[in-house]
Amino acid sequence: xxxxxxxxxxxxGSPNLVDAALRILRSHAFGFLxxxxxxxxxxxxxxxxxxxxxxxxxxxxxxxxxxxxxxxxARPQVCYSVEDRAAVAYATFYxxxxxxxTGPELVTHWDETLRPxxxxxxxxxxxxxxxxxxxxVELVDFTAGIHPDPYGLVAAVAQVP
Length: 161
Prior knowledge:
Elements: H1 14-26, E1 30-36, E2 42-52, E3 58-62, H2 67-74, E4 77-84, E5 89-100, H3 104-108, E6 128-141, E7 156-159
Antiparallel strand pairs: 1-2, 1-4, 2-3, 3-6, 4-5, 5-6, 6-7
């Protein structure tokens, strides 16, 4: 039976939907970060997320000199989408992007596989984190039965607490 945006276990359905979206996100390392450039034109990038917190905060590595960083500083409202093709599912997180250029967070979320892109490592000055703080999530997950009727024509939506 399909799960609707509301369920008997949660009056708003939000925690269950957010948990389902986080499951999709955590099971796939890459997603599409959509924002706008400084002139307002759409820009979408395939990126790897480095961390996903229980509160839905997402961290992505970048250079503070990248176009991505410049765009996010100018226009911090973004979407981040991940697809689970096998489950016929996706999750899209609507978020505010924050650029983190200094502090212990860089070391905490560093991944050695990034060294070819950032040879000086997490404290070398060319590595930064994009911290996404979501406020809304949309998802469809046919395997989990999350799709408002009629099947898949609209996504289930939840506010992130």
